[in-house]
Design brief:
Radius of gyration: 25 Å
Strand content: 25-35%
Oligomer: single chain
């Protein structure tokens, strides 16, 4: 059955959105730049809170102590390419619409709020009598001896994993009415961001505003202050503009609910009915309705020039349809790693509902970059309709052009608003700008030039940092359980004899049990696939945090349909490589790629990587694993890897021009392994 997706409230009731209510940068305050991650709205009091999709529901008291915020963890994802949504946050819920003091309001007292009767049914099913108390919604979590477990800096995940088994989240169905909003309310969409777990303070706030200093105050810790100022801005990548989210239903359609029923909004009506609302184009419900986001990530999943490399710079080049030359655009024009196309001159379009966007990304140091479009569309030919990309169309391989600083243009397509006056319709695109070696390059890249502004990890291999550092502890299971975290984000793995031209894109994962840490890669798409193989299928299903009895016999057996074999690679250890290190090549069905699993002892891995000392900082997103598979000589499988990460340390005294001191640490030296035929 096709999953049901609904708008989060009754669109008819939304008033015109004001400038300071929309998702995006706010005016600076107290020498700090600010970015609002909440989409705020005003409406006639009593607007319904509608479940966007099937999912698990919790409630928290807001930071003012007077209102409620609801947290919906979706059971599935959207019927189109989009960043993996971890949570929908409803803010400004009218507490009285659900609670009378600390008890759920009487059953059938508000027929238009279906959640009330659901909570009463759950209460009775657990053998209770009378009206349910607030514990049914999880509102008692963190109010007693467990307060430290649910502090503001603890992850939102705690509400949905490891909770008391007698108080599980409430399951709701898409389209159900959950409560009523107050006169002003907010909505946020949290998406997966490897290395960062959204804290509970996001769920409790009435609006989430990120702040980053505009200047570095003189101090002995200038290096760390420099990094913090830069890195704090990356936190906005854990959110997506709700307007772009709703606009992305332009091919799928969406349901919209009023106080008593749900009405299907056809794909062609999303812009007018949802983004503009009943006020029309001049009084739209969403100010960002004509904003097309262009999210470009580097090889480690951060924003395009996160490492501030001089060669890359901040500029990209854009052109629409056949416009030439392309126009430079500062990717960080807002001061934040959040770039969009809006308010530009639009050419005459062959089809007013869609437009080709040509983009030229910067070349990178000592590499031939490869672009991969994880969220995007294409217009395959003149007169054809915009559609999602195929697996091979997502790879955009370009050489440098006449200007060696930029690659030759690639192309995606974006939806345009209906009507005779061309303009963007809200949408979201994501492009990964991967590094990879140039053809014929040595396996060891050149050392980085001495540049105090360059934050990049010190490279030791072309495959350094394939798997990003988790950055925050995952929730612990019992001693007999394996905790497994899989991700939706993608990494690029160059491979084989054609090291610079053959590669596959994979989804990373991380697991741990009482003794071992498992690092693994699920291949999802291949560049220049041999004709004897088909495009691989996503093996692990939706990214998740889950518990299993055993990594191989339980998790992998379920993920791969029970059909796989494990090839043991025999590592050649140096004196610095922990003796317990193991490498396994998991072979699936004949038409699937190999799954790489590297197993490390927790006692060796965690003290160095997961719990670094406080005297220096691990650069967010630097990695712990590089892996290379070789297919020569024929008949043997080779694997080489190194667990490594980079720390940034502050000099004991400031030196002219010396902002960052980089130290490349390799707790395990390179290991090599082979399997005889």
């Amino acid at each position: 059955m096709k999953p049901k997706f609904c708008f989060f409230t009754d669109p008819v009731l939304l008033e015109e959105q004001q400038p300071d209510e929309a998702f995006g940068p706010l005016p600076a305050l107290d020498s700090h730049d600010r970015f609002q991650c909440t989409d705020l709205h005003s409406a006639v009091a009593g607007a319904p809170v509608v479940a966007i999709c099937d999912g698990q529901l919790r409630a928290v008291v807001d930071e003012a102590g007077t209102g409620l915020n609801l947290i919906l963890k979706p059971d599935g994802q959207m019927p189109f390419d989009f960043p993996f949504v971890t949570y929908f946050l409803y803010k400004g819920v009218d507490r009285a619409s659900l609670l009378a003091a600390d008890m759920i309001v009487a059953e059938n007292s508000a027929p238009d709020i279906e959640l009330i009767n659901i909570l009463h049914e759950i209460w009775r099913a657990n053998g209770n009598s009378g009206s349910p108390d607030k514990s049914v919604l999880g509102l008692d979590l963190g109010t007693g001896s467990d307060a430290a477990d649910y502090a503001d800096d603890e992850p939102i995940d705690r509400l949905f994993y490891g909770y008391p088994k007698e108080r599980p989240p409430v399951h709701v169905t898409g389209g159900q009415r959950l409560a009523r909003f107050g006169a002003q309310f907010g909505f946020e969409i949290l998406v997966e961001q490897i290395g960062r777990q959204p804290p509970l303070k996001y769920a409790r706030s009435t609006r989430t505003i990120m702040s980053a200093s505009q200047a570095i105050a003189p101090s002995l810790n200038a290096a760390i202050a420099f990094l913090d100022r830069h890195d704090n801005r990356e936190a906005v990548l854990g959110f997506v503009d709700p307007c772009a989210f709703w606009g992305s239903f332009f091919r799928a359609g969406l349901d919209a609910s009023d106080a008593s029923s749900a009405v299907a909004v056809p794909p062609g009506q999303i812009y007018a009915t949802i983004l503009c609302g009943t006020g029309g184009e001049q009084h739209a419900a969403f100010r960002n309705r004509n904003r097309a986001y262009l999210d470009i990530r580097n090889e480690h999943g951060q924003s395009m020039n996160y490492y501030r490399t001089a060669t890359v710079g901040n500029d990209i080049r854009l052109g629409f349809e056949d416009q030439d030359p392309l126009t430079p655009l500062d990717y960080y024009q807002t001061g934040w790693p959040c770039c969009w196309m809006q308010g530009v001159t639009i050419p005459t379009l062959p089809d007013p509902g869609q437009m080709r966007v040509r983009f030229a990304l910067p070349a990178t140091d000592y590499s031939r970059p490869l672009s991969y479009v994880s969220v995007g569309h294409v217009i395959p030919s003149s007169g054809a309709a915009l559609r999602p990309m195929t697996a091979q169309e997502r790879f955009i391989d370009r050489e440098p052009g006449s200007d060696p600083v930029y690659l030759l243009p690639g192309e995606i397509a974006v939806p345009m608003r209906p009507g005779t006056s061309p303009d963007f319709a809200a949408s979201y695109q994501r492009i990964h700008h991967f590094k990879r070696p140039r053809p014929g390059a040595d396996t060891t890249p050149p050392a980085l030039a001495a540049d105090p502004d360059n934050l990049a990890p010190v490279p030791t291999s072309w495959l350094d940092n394939i798997l990003p550092l988790p950055g925050a502890p995952i929730l612990a299971g019992s001693g007999s359980e394996t905790v497994i975290k899989t991700y939706a984000d993608v990494v690029l793995v160059p491979e084989g004899a054609a090291f610079a031209t053959a590669a596959f894109v994979a989804r990373p994962g991380f697991a741990q049990d009482a003794s071992y840490v498992y690092l693994f890669l699920f291949p999802t798409a291949r560049l220049l696939r041999k004709t004897s193989k088909k495009d691989p299928v996503l093996i692990p299903g939706p990214p998740s945090l889950q518990l299993a009895k055993d990594f191989f016999t339980d998790f992998l057996a379920n993920s791969m349909g029970g059909s796989f074999s494990v090839e043991i690679i025999n590592p050649g250890y140096s004196s610095l490589t922990p003796a317990g290190t193991m490498v396994r090549i998991v072979r699936g069905k004949p038409d699937e790629d190999d799954l790489i699993v590297v197993i490390l002892k927790r006692i060796d891995y965690e003290p160095a990587v997961l719990a670094p000392d406080n005297s220096s900082r691990v650069l967010e997103g630097t990695g712990w694993l590089s892996v290379r598979l070789s297919d020569t000589p024929k008949g043997r499988s080779y694997c080489e890897g190194v667990a490594a990460y980079t720390r940034l340390t502050s000099p004991t005294a400031p030196a002219a021009g010396d902002k960052i001191v980089r130290t490349s640490l390799t707790p395990f030296s390179t290991l090599y392994g082979h399997a005889d035929p």
